[in-house]
Amino acid sequence: MKQLQRARWVTDKFILAMLGVFPLFVGFQGYDDITGSKYRFFAWAVGLWLGCVAALLLVGLIQGERYRPRVRPAHLLMGAFLAAGGVSAMLSDYGAACLMGADRNDGYLTTVMYAACFFGVSALARPRRRYAWALGFSSAVCCVIAVLQLFGLDPFWFYPEGTNYYDKYVAYNSAFLGTIGNTGLLSAYLCIAGPLLAAFAALSEEKWDKLLFLPAALSFGVIASCDVDAGLVAVAGCALVAIPVCIRRDRTARLAGAVSGGVTALGLGTLWFWPGKSGTIYEMSQVLHGHLADEFGSHRGQIWKQGWALFREKPWLGAGPGTTGLRFDIHWYSEVRNSTANVANPHNVYLGYLMNTGVVGAGLYLAAIVCSLVTWIRRRKENALYPALGAAFLCFLIQDFFGLGLSLTEPMLWVVWGLLETPEE
């Protein structure tokens, strides 16, 4: 099995690169081209990794080596999801635009690369302690840079010349922090790092692993500081579910589950009877009562309403991967910048899949997620990293309900997802 071992070695290095290097790579033009720079890094990394693995396994096959990875329900559902996306692209009115996507490289080819991460990592990798340390390194560096930027500094010249974080929405049309860029996407990345590092540090019996509480605390601190409510909601929701799951003793886990259930019920009751008239909690209360105003969630209410209407136009297979930017008709004028911005993203990954691949594609994607969450709960007592991976996966999924789903952060989700579906040891 010599070639198989080499393929696993290459996969190990790919995972380390995606968790430890990819989050820190900004390119050579700062925030001006961070989306393109990270996408090129991801595409090259996936291409080199798959090319090496394919060559090694082919040589092994010629030499008489045979490897049959175990197929889980999530793998079958993911394969069907890819097939649904392919059919949607072929039947789309937008033709070749479905391949790369109309905006920010979010088309079918990118989905294929995501799925390749899932299949390849789950087949060839195993959860390893060094993956937590790689993520701890990248998140610590990213958060330190973000903290410096919150103090008005720009130590690596990421911002346009003469500007800093507090020129957001004035000198440039967004808010940027750290080595991820957009604060919403930074929050999404930290929704992987924070829960994974905190859970692993708590569960690991190695004393040095306790140091990972430090980057975990930094991650949660930056989420709280970057003015992204989605990250706070995701962390809170994740804690309520993941803490009982990650506890090894069944009696204590049941007690924690009961406490989480009680806290959830109390929280929902508070939201239902919330007396306030403004703010995030007020908006959540109104949504609970079935009222979604256009301005709620930084105008996500308006975006989601139009996204839902567009989904209903092509409900079964959608309009094609990566086509949301071609269909939205929402334009926001900024008096400060005297410019108009066009909405090109549904700001909800699941709504995006509904619009792009319809009920069929989105349903298969959600079914694969459910399978992996069930697997996480069933295998929660494995090595310390495994339950931590599930916590990170869950937190990112909650954040995705409000997220952009772009290639600056999504590749890390699919690597973590692949590690969740590795064979039992």
Tell me the total number of β-strands: 4
Number of helices, where a helix is a run of at least 4 consecutive DSSP H or I residues: 16
- Largest sheet at a glance? 2 strands, antiparallel
**Which structural class do you get from the secondary structure elements?**
mainly alpha
**SSE run:** HHHHHHEEHHHHHHHEEHHH
End-to-end Cα distance: 18 Å
The averaged pLDDT comes out at 92
- Unreliable parts: none
- Strand percentage lies at under 5%
Radius of gyration: 21 Å
Which terms would index this structure?
two-stranded antiparallel sheet; two-stranded antiparallel ribbon; globular; single chain; 16 helices; 425 residues; mainly alpha
Topology of helices and strands:
Blueprint: H1 2-20, H2 34-62, H3 73-91, H4 97-100, H5 108-124, H6 129-150, E1 176-177, E2 181-182, H7 183-203, H8 213-225, H9 229-246, H10 250-272, H11 280-288, H12 296-313, H13 324-327, E3 331-334, E4 339-342, H14 349-378, H15 385-400, H16 410-420
Antiparallel strand pairs: 1-2, 3-4
Helix pairs in contact: 1-2, 1-6, 3-5, 3-14, 5-16, 6-7, 6-8, 7-8, 7-9, 7-15, 9-10, 9-15, 12-14, 14-15, 15-16
Outline of the structure:
This protein is mainly alpha-helical and 425 residues long. It is built from 16 helices and 4 strands.
